[in-house]
Amino acid sequence: MVDRAHPLEEAIRLEAVYKAFVPRGRSARPLLALDDVSFAARPGEFISLVGPSGCGKSTVLNLLAGLTRPSAGRVVHHGRPVTGVNTEVGYITQDDNLLPWRSMLRNVEYGLELRRVPKDERRRRAREFIELVGLAGFENHYPHELSGGMRKRAGIVRTLAYDSDVVLMDEPFGPLDAQTRVILQDELLKLWELRRPTVLFVTHDLVEAIALSDRIITFTCRPGRIKREYEVGLRRPRDVFHIHDLPRFRELYDALWDDIRMEIAAT
Ligand SMILES: Nc1ncnc2c1ncn2[C@@H]1O[C@H](COP(=O)(O)OP(=O)(O)OP(=O)(O)O)[C@@H](O)[C@H]1O
Ligand SMILES: [Mg+2]
Prior knowledge:
alpha/beta, Rossmann fold, 4-stranded antiparallel sheet, disordered N terminus, binds adenosine-5'-triphosphate, binds magnesium ion
């Protein structure tokens, strides 16, 4: 559990957050997306957010990235409220967000450029990460010349090379086939182990949530409220290829699926 007595030892915190969107049109009623959501993450913790479509998972990440404001409550990063765009966090959004006019290498360097890292250093770090995920040789390819899996890898290393202490990932493996997905999960864990940033990871895949996370937070259907929190409690480093064999896996999977099934039935 998070130690509430030491809030500065928290990387991020949402405190009684409500988020309502006001649709266009005068007669439209506000839509409540998040309803009294509170949680905190320890530095280095890997947390997955799981819940039905439209329950506000992406909204939670957007709040932390400062792309949208809470209607009530507080969003805090390292003890400071997030009041504008939060360039301190790394963010892999739900879309494939490589810049089509830049080569893969220059895409990976992009975050470092924003941080004004000198060119030589930038190039060295980008190449190091590219090597780590087996993309060496494709540095000069443009995104449309890469496979879906390669584009996802490039997006992930770009965000991790940025070296933020908090990384937000919104269904980063969404459209990939099952095999590529597990391989990328394994790679992601290896990269994460190098610096251990705090990760907030959104996924619809319960197996993925268990394989990757220290803690899993389930949400109700909209308006999103926290339904339950689970400590995963599986030892690291993890073997994502055989995670299903563990008794703890089964137990968690069944509990998570019960939560989600109930919420989907309620929509
Ligand atoms: N900018 C916006 N303007 C108006 N409504 C919005 C906006 N962003 C999100 N919403 C609404 O808020 C609710 C939560 O959206 P959000 O994208 O956070 O859900 P989600 O849990 O990420 O869903 P999914 O699993 O489908 O990605 C939805 O009903 C959505 O339509
Ligand atoms: Mg979403």
